[in-house]
Amino acid sequence: MAHNAGALDRRDTAWYVDKAVEWLVFIGGISAIIFIVGIFVFIGKEGFGFILGRFDFAEFFFSPRWTPTSLTNATYGALALIVGTASVTGFAMLVSVPFSLGAAIYIAEFATGKRRETLKVLIEMLAAIPSVVWGFIGLSLMNPLIISVFNVPLGLNVLNAGIILGLMAAPIMTTIAEDALKAVPDGYREAAEALGATRWQVIRQVVLPAAKNGLVAAVLLGVGRGFGETMAVLMATGHSINIPSSIFDPVRALTATIATELGETAEGSEHYQALFALGILLFAVTFVINLTADLFVRGIKDK
Amino acid sequence: MASTESSRAAIETQKLNLWYGTFQALFDVDLEIKPGIITSMIGPSGCGKSTFLRSVNRINERLGYVRTTGSIRVHGRDVYAPEVEIIQVRKQVGMVFQRPNPLPLSVRDNILFGARLHGEPAPKLSSSQADEIVETALQKVLLWDKVKDRLNQPAIGLSLEEQQKLCIARLLPVKPQVLLMDEPCSALDPAGTEAVEEMIWELRGDYTILIVTHNMAQARRASEECIFMLLGKVIEHSPTDELFVTPGDTRTADYIEGRYG
Ligand SMILES: Nc1ncnc2c1ncn2[C@@H]1O[C@H](COP(=O)(O)OP(=O)(O)O)[C@@H](O)[C@H]1O
Ligand SMILES: [Mg+2]
Questions:
Q1: Who surrounds ion ligand 2 at CB < 5 A?
Q2: A23 and A166, same structural domain?
Q3: Does residue A29 come out as left (phi exceeding 0), alpha (psi in the -120 to 50 range) or beta?
């Protein structure tokens, strides 16, 4: 009787569950890769038609004239859009970096118990506000506020979108920065305090340098968030093609341009393909930002 | 400021009780630790040795749920008095931890960390002053020759023995009067232990040293007085030779002969 042999190769439910889960997880992982590659191929296919054909490097990067719908002389200068996105994102970082680092330092190093939990929940709630709501705030709250406070004719501009985008990027920056601070071993703080450092000296001279990589990653991910944001930026920038000379000038973002124009172009047309070229640019920039952030995060773990 | 009577002791505690939340870890600890000598503190794990050390420089307070009653005087000054600045206490009382804990800085910056915090009157040190501080401190812990070519490398890269010596060296520029050492050799191999012990012995006289150890041989070799603690209480405090040869309490004798954990 094969009693022993039977016992050794018996496969019970747990074995099948294990195999099934293994496969599911594998498919999940593979599909992420397939989607990324798929998106890249799709955008690439549409955009490269333009890049290889009509594309004029000097015009695309150095001309502020984006007039794709002109019947006689369509131009595809993305400079104003690039500057628009960059200025709004840059201003957003001015708002967001001090705010987020401050909040992260407070939560990680000073707040305790209930207060800390409350703050964390609040910040997570901030992250959950849909971007169209932020745009709405920009449009109907910030707009009149900026007009009356600064006495300018228009409140939809770099300032408005920058503040809105800064607040939108703050939760992710705060959360990642806080993680980075939390990852600093408590022994460092104890050692420095035992040497007679005040809490601020401990933070300034020990904790922040030790968390440097994670903090840089937090800021970069915030920048990435800013670059990719569409709806709120569309609503708060004024959406007019312009190289801004002050924070009170309206601008137009890359993302918002794609979102508003894509539906009105004929599939496969030059304009349609040019929008995909903008998409490739956005994709490339956010890819580089995220990759850099990732390298910085890895930097922490190597130590 | 200090009366002649109290200035005799480097550390003097009266009726020191300490609670972690509701758990009482120290009971009526009365101790008088003499200046300029090495006093060792022994006792089974969990008897409150670390707790005692950590209340002398008030580092215990980081936890936020520690309550202390009674008094601790360091060279006559009550360190728990309301007007006392905790920074000044920690300047006077240096601490060495069980695991070497160099800061994530270079060897040089580790040594200069305390000096830069407390530098007077201007906190900016010239680089020649800084070089001198670094060399003096490292010479004192017999580490200079070994690390003088690696001053700008991360301290984490040193061996554990070197790290622990560095952790002692970085206290010296702050000019503390008292050094608290909580099992400073427990993370080291026998050779490292011997080297660090020897170095601690060299510091004798310049500093009052209170060293916790679970290594009885070490306590015997390296200290002039010895304190035995059990369950949060001081059982015996006498000259080391006496404590080991003719313990005054049966519980001390039991511990020395290895009858506790
Ligand atoms: N942070 C803490 N929170 C609560 N209880 C603690 C804490 N640290 C130590 N204790 C308790 O206090 C007692 C004394 O601990 P400790 O001073 O570390 O002993 P020792 O250093 O002699 O081994 C132990 O019972 C320990 O569990
Ligand atoms: Mg201990």
A1: B 50
A2: no
A3: alpha
pLDDT band at A188 (very low <50, low <70, confident <90, very high): very high
Nearest ligand (C-alpha, residue B54)? 1
The number of domains in chain B is 1
> What's at B66, amino acid-wise?
V
Residue nearest to atom 20 of ligand 1 (CA): B46
Residues A150 and A277 in one domain: yes
Q: Report which bound ligand comes closest to the CA of B48.
A: 1
Q: Which of B64, B88, B113 sits opposite A195 (nearest CB)?
A: B113
In a domain, A176, yes or no: yes
Sort residue A251 into left (φ over 0), alpha (ψ -120 to 50) or beta: beta
Closest CB to B64: pick one of A112, A192, A210.
Answer: A112
The pLDDT tens digits of the residues spanning A65-111 come to 898 888 888 889 999 999 999 999 999 999 999 999 999 999 999 98
Any atom of ligand 1 within 6 Å of the Cβ of B51: yes
ipTM of the complex: 0.89
Q: Residues A136, A233: one domain?
A: yes
The domain of B248 spans 3-99+178-256
Mean pLDDT, 10 residues at a time, chain B of 261 residues: 56 93 93 92 92 93 90 90 89 92 92 83 72 88 88 90 91 91 88 85 88 87 90 92 86 82 53
Q: Structural domain tally of chain A? A: 2
| Cβ-Cβ contacts under 8 Å, B171 against chain A | 195
Interface of B with A in 148-207 (CB under 8 A): 156, 167, 170-171, 174
Give a yes or no: residue A75 inside a domain: no
**In-domain check, residue B149:** no
| Residues A136 and A218 occupy one common structural domain | yes
Nearest by CB to residue B117, choosing from A188, A195, A209, is: A195
Residue A303 reports pLDDT greater than 70 = no
Which pLDDT score, from 0 to 100, does residue B133 have? 87
Query: Is A112 part of the contact surface with chain B (CB cutoff 8 Å)?
Result: yes
Phi, psi of A212 (to 5 degrees): -50, -50
The reply to whether A27 and A128 lie within a common domain is: no
- Whichever domain contains B195, its CATH number is 3.40.50.300
pLDDT of amino acid A55: 78
CA B212 vs CA A19, A53, B44, B250: distances in Å: 54, 78, 11, 21
Q: Is the pLDDT of residue A240 over 60?
A: yes
**B23 Cβ closer than 6 Å to some ligand 1 atom:** yes
Q: Please tell me the predicted confidence (pLDDT) of residue B120.
A: 61
